[in-house]
Prior knowledge:
Largest sheet: 3 strands, antiparallel
Number of domains: 1
Strand content: 35-45%
Amino acid sequence: MAVNKESFIQGFVPHHTHGSVDYTAIANGHVHQCLDVTHPPILTPDGGHIHYTEGYVVFEDGHTHSYKAYSSPAIPVGNGMHVHYYDFYTSVDDGHQHHVSGVDQPAPGTI
Length: 111
């Protein structure tokens, strides 16, 4: 069975990832774009899953920042898809850090 963005998938889809495109909060007079793809799912004891991610925000104002974070558990959004909430801070570079929060792109599966 082929799985695509129109597929209705009940339950868990192994090895899926989520992408996101967001901006950091303003700090030191600027923002950075944050382009991300998560690692595959990490199963949780309650039968759900979360995702780990790490990377760098886009170079801006002469520097960049790194981040390492875990998502919330899956949030069903209908049509056999789910998302995850994220909320983290970047590393401190150039004397400041940035807050990043939001929801990633939907992926197949209801949990």
